[in-house]
Design goal:
Blueprint: E1 12-15, H1 25-34, E2 36-39, H2 45-53, E3 64-67, H3 84-88, E4 96-99, H4 109-114, E5 118-120, H5 127-143, H6 145-153, H7 164-167, E6 175-179, H8 183-194, E7 198-202, H9 208-213, E8 218-219, H10 223-229, E9 232-235, H11 249-252, E10 259-263, H12 272-281, E11 284-289, H13 300-303, E12 308-310, H14 319-338
Parallel strand pairs: 1-2, 1-3, 3-4, 4-5, 6-7, 6-9, 7-8, 9-10, 10-11, 11-12
Helix pairs in contact: 1-14, 5-8
Length: about 350
């Protein structure tokens, strides 16, 4: 693969902004000093395609694309430039794309790889923020904190909380079953260990180092074995064709008669219809979801149930996370164009071999 020579000119980078920017001062300064930034301002994806197809247009001769901003932010929330039709129009001049976010299910990495374009995500940039939310959702699934706050804020319902001693439980002594024990899972596990919970997990491979850091965590080779012992199931695996609807009508049969469920990974990993069914049957007695199968649309049975904590995919949402996203993206660009040519967080690493 060909690496740009920065001694000839500054690499030309298409920068996708958001309307309420958060910048890391040093990273933002570096980005502006070392690169020629071209501001993305298209009204639609179709406009982007027209602009980037014009060999003499303002998006001509791009070397890279940087989307270090929030993927859910306005005004480009619905602009999916790295998949579908838009990605097919990227010019051959583009060598690398850097993006915020840990997951990359809205990116056609296989197609980018076929074109020789590197894609870099921003892993671990939001691990602390997401783990904090995960810990809160685990706690709320046991203690029904959303329901309690609803009672406070709704006139005449203050004493409806009298039901809580009959349904709430201490997390202490219960088992948290984690599906996908990475950095975020480790942080949630550490916090829940402090609450007195037992930690179990299922992963593609065993993680002895994390087990040691947790001073004990039980590994299960199969999902079925993990679900059988878990009082609260925490979903943290990537969304792939293999994990789509990993939690479904069948896997609920593997769970305890009374179970809790938390998802802070990706919505489609959990089949919403199966969740609603388990609630109606009384098997799912508590839950917390920061992500949803059809977000932003959520089933009315979940919206109307204040014993379920629902968040609008905000696990990442701290100032610290977005400053780290920007640092990670800029570091990848600098390393590629001005350093070793090998960015730090490349997903399709086979292109570097």
């Amino acid at each position: 693969m060909t690496i740009a020579n920065p001694s000839v000119k500054k690499p030309r980078v298409l920068y996708i902004p958001w309307d309420k920017p958060i910048h890391d001062d040093e990273a933002w300064k570096t980005l502006n000093q070392k690169f020629e930034l071209v501001l993305y301002d298209c009204e639609t994806e179709d406009e982007f395609i027209r602009e980037i197809d014009d060999p003499n247009g303002r998006f001509a001769n791009l070397d890279a694309i940087c989307r270090s901003t929030w993927l859910k932010s306005s005004p480009y929330l619905k602009h999916f430039l790295f998949r579908g039709e838009p990605v097919k129009h990227l010019p051959d001049s583009i060598k690398i794309i850097v993006s915020s976010g840990h997951g990359y299910d809205i990116v056609d990495v296989d197609y980018l790889t076929s074109r020789g374009i590197l894609f870099c995500n921003s892993p671990d940039s939001c691990s602390i923020a997401t783990a904090d939310v995960g810990t809160y959702l685990v706690m709320s699934s046991f203690r029904y904190l959303t329901f309690a706050e609803h009672c406070v804020r709704t006139p005449g319902k203050y004493y409806d909380t009298q039901i809580l001693p009959h349904i709430a439980q201490n997390p202490s002594g219960r088992t948290l079953g984690i599906i996908g024990l990475g950095d975020i899972g480790y942080r949630v596990a550490l916090a829940c260990k402090a609450l007195g919970m037992n930690i179990a997990y299922h992963n593609r491979s065993r993680k002895p180092a994390i087990e040691a850091k947790l001073n004990g965590a039980t590994y299960f080779e199969t999902l079925k074995e993990l679900l059988a012992v878990s009082d609260c199931v925490l979903v943290l695996c990537p969304h792939t064709p293999e994990t789509h609807h990993l939690i479904n009508f069948e896997t609920f049969k593997w769970m305890k008669p009374k179970v809790r469920l938390v998802n802070i990974a990706r919505g489609p990993i959990v089949q919403e219809a199966a969740v609603v069914d388990a609630l109606k049957r009384g098997q799912l007695v508590g839950a917390g979801f920061d992500v949803h199968e059809f977000e932003p649309k959520i089933h009315p049975d979940l919206l109307d149930n204040y014993k379920i904590t629902l968040l609008p995919h905000v696990g990442v949402s701290t100032e610290d996370s977005f400053k780290t996203f920007e640092r990670t993206c800029v570091n990848n660009l600098v390393e590629y164009f001005y350093g070793s040519g090998i960015p730090n967080t490349c997903v399709n690493k086979e292109l570097l071999e």
